[in-house]
Amino acid sequence: MNFDIDTNQVEYIDGITHEFPYTMHNRDLTHFTVPWHWHEEVELDYVTEGAITIDTVNGSYTVKKGNGYFINTNVMDSKRKADGYPRAVECAHLFHPILIAGHFHSVYEHKYLNPILKNQQIEVLVITRNTATGKQILQNLKELTSLQSNVNSEIQIRNLLSDTWLQLIDEVKTQLHEKSFPKQYKQDIVRSMLSYIHQNYASEITLGMIADFAGISERECSRLFKDILHKTPFDFIIECRIEAAKNELLHSLNSVTNIALKTGFNNSSYFCKMFKEYTQQTPTEYRKCNK
After folding, report:
1. Are the CB atoms for 63 and 85 separated by under 8 Å?
2. Which domains does the chain have, with CATH numbers?
3. Rounded to the nearest 10 degrees, what angle do helices 268-279 and 233-251 cross at?
4. Which residues pair with 12 in a beta bridge?
5. N or C: which end of the chain has fewer CB within 10 A?
C-alpha cells in the first residue's frame, strides 16, 4: 500500500480531481501503517473488519468494526491496526469541502462548513450507533459505498455528502462538550520537524539540526517525538530513508549500493540490516516480491 506524500508530509490523494474532488478507498491496514501526514480533504470512514487506531498530535482514537470516524481538514494523523485485533480494514470517503460549498465564500461554506472546519476542538470524531445522528451517518456512508458502482452518480454522492454533513453538525454538538481544546502550537512544531526530516533525510541530520529548524531545544524536540510520535527522531529518520529506498527499489534500476547512498545510508551493509529489520525482507527480496 503506497501513500503519495510530498516534502511537507501533505498527502496527494489518488482519485481526487478538480472536476470531482471526492474519492473512496478500501484500505487494508492489517500489515500497513499510514504514515504521519495531513491534507485539505476531510475524511468520513467506517471500519469493516477489526479495529483501527488513529493517532494525532493530541491523542489516539480507536474505532472498532461497525463504527466510523471523521477527520477534519489539515489534521496531522497516522493510522494503524489497533492493538489486540487481528485485522484492520476500512472504507474511506475523502472529499474536499469545496464539493459541498460549491465555491469559496459561499453561504454553504460560512453557514455549514466553517463551524466545523475552523473549530480547533474538532480533529477526530468517532461515530457510533449510540446516537440517532451517528446511526444516520453510518448508514449514509454505506450508501455512499454502494453508489460507487453506479454510472453518473456524482449528483447523488454530492447530495448524500451534504446530508451527511448536516448530520455531522448535530453529532458534533452532542459530543463537543466532552472534548478539550487541542494544543495547536504542538501540531505546528511537529509538522515543521517532520517536514525538515522529509526534505533532508538523504543528508546527515542531527538532533540539533531538527531542534534549530523548529526553534526549540533538543530536549523538547526529543520529548515531542516520544510523546506524540511514540518514537525517537532517529527512528523517524530511518523510517523516511527506508520508505524512500522502497520506492527506489520498485521504480528504478539502481543497485542496492547506490540506493543505500542515495537515501542517506553510509554503506550498503548497514542499509540491508536496517531494511530487513523494518520490512522483514532484504532489499533484493523486496524488489523481487513487489516489483
Report:
1. no
2. 4-178 (2.60.120.280), 184-290 (1.10.10.60)
3. 100
4. 4
5. C
Using the CB atoms, write b or e for 74-108: b if 16+ within 10 Å. ebbbbbbbbeebebbbbbbbbbbbbbbbeeeeeeb
Q: What is the pTM of this model?
A: 0.75
Tell me which residue of 93, 61, 55 sits closest to 187, measured CA to CA: 55
Rounded-to-integer distance, Cα 182 and Cα 199, Å: 27
The per-residue pLDDT for range 23-70, each reduced to its tens digit, is: 999 999 998 888 888 999 999 999 999 999 999 988 899 999 999 999
Q: Which three cell numbers stand for residue 175?
A: 459530543
CB 221 within 8 A of CB 211: yes
- Grid look-up 480533504 returns 41
